[in-house]
From TrEMBL:
One example GO MF annotation: metal ion binding
PANTHER family cross-referenced by the UniProt entry: DNA REPAIR PROTEIN RADC, UPF0758 PROTEIN YEES-RELATED
Protein family according to the UniProt entry: Belongs to the UPF0758 family.
Protein name: DNA repair protein RadC
Swiss-Prot/TrEMBL keywords: Hydrolase, Metal-binding, Metalloprotease, Protease, Zinc
C-alpha cells in the first residue's frame, strides 16, 4: 500500500468507526479530495489547501478563479464543492418540512446561514410554517442593495395568509459581517410582530445573519 492510499483510507476508516464529527478539518477535506497529486499525498494536499485559504469557510466561499489558483484544485473540485453546498441547503430545507421547526430552531438558523451568509446584497427571507410547525415554504421576499432592503410587513402577512401559514420565522443578512441588530432591525421586528398578532399568526423569531455568526431576537430575549 503506497503513501497516497494509506493517507486516503485512514480518514474513511475513522469516519466509519467513529462518525464524521470525529474527523479533523484536514481529514474531512482529504475524503473530499480523494487523492493527492505528485509530491503531495492526499493528507498533505488537504493541509496545503486549508493553509492556503485559512479556513473551511474561505474555501467554501472562494470564487472559481481564486479556487483554481491553489495547487491540486481545479474546476472539477470546484463544481463538486458547489454541488455539495447546494445539497446541504436542500437537506436542511427538507428536514424543516418533516421536523417541528420551532422546536428545532438550529435547522432554521443553519438554513438561513447557508443561504444568506455570503450574499453581498441585503436579503430578507421568510419561513412560512403550518400549524404543526413544519415548513410550508421558504421565500426570499425582499432584495436590497449592499446595506438595506425595503421590507413591507403587509406583504409578509399577505403571503402568510395566502399559504395558510400558522407561524413565520424571518431573517435577513448584514453584508457588512456584523450581526448586531440596529435600531431599524428592532423597529422592523416590532412592526412584523404586531402585524402577525392582528391576524393570529405566530411570530417565532427574527434571525440576523452575519459573517460566520448570527443573532436571534428570541434566543437573546431582546425586546424589539
Amino acid at each position: 500500500m503506497d503513501e497516497n492510499t494509506s493517507d486516503e483510507l485512514m480518514p474513511r476508516e475513522k469516519l466509519l468507526q467513529y462518525g464524521a464529527s470525529s474527523l479533523t478539518d484536514e481529514e474531512l477535506l482529504a475524503i473530499f479530495l480523494r487523492t493527492g497529486i505528485k509530491g503531495l499525498p492526499v493528507m498533505a494536499l488537504s493541509r496545503h489547501v486549508l493553509q492556503a485559504f485559512g479556513s473551511f469557510r474561505a474555501l467554501l466561499t472562494a470564487e472559481l478563479a481564486d479556487f483554481c489558483k491553489i495547487k491540486g484544485l481545479g474546476q472539477t473540485q470546484y463544481i463538486q464543492l458547489q454541488a455539495t453546498k447546494e445539497m446541504t441547503k436542500r437537506y436542511l430545507l427538507q428536514q424543516m418540512e418533516v421536523e417541528e421547526t420551532i422546536d428545532s430552531p438550529h435547522l432554521a438558523i443553519m438554513y438561513f446561514q447557508s443561504v444568506l451568509e455570503n450574499d453581498e446584497r441585503e436579503i430578507f427571507m421568510v419561513l412560512f410554517l403550518n400549524n404543526k410547525h413544519h415548513l410550508i415554504k421558504a421565500e426570499k421576499m425582499f432584495l436590497g442593495t449592499i446595506n438595506q432592503a425595503s421590507v413591507y410587513s403587509r406583504e409578509i402577512i399577505k403571503e402568510a395568509l395566502k399559504c395558510n401559514a400558522a407561524a413565520i420565522i424571518v431573517a435577513h443578512n448584514h453584508p457588512s459581517g456584523s450581526c448586531t441588530p440596529s435600531e431599524a432591525d428592532r423597529y422592523l421586528t416590532r412592526k412584523i410582530e404586531m402585524a402577525c398578532d392582528l391576524v393570529d399568526i405566530r411570530f417565532v423569531d427574527h434571525i440576523i445573519v452575519g459573517k460566520g455568526s448570527y443573532f436571534s431576537f428570541e434566543e437573546n430575549k431582546l425586546d424589539s
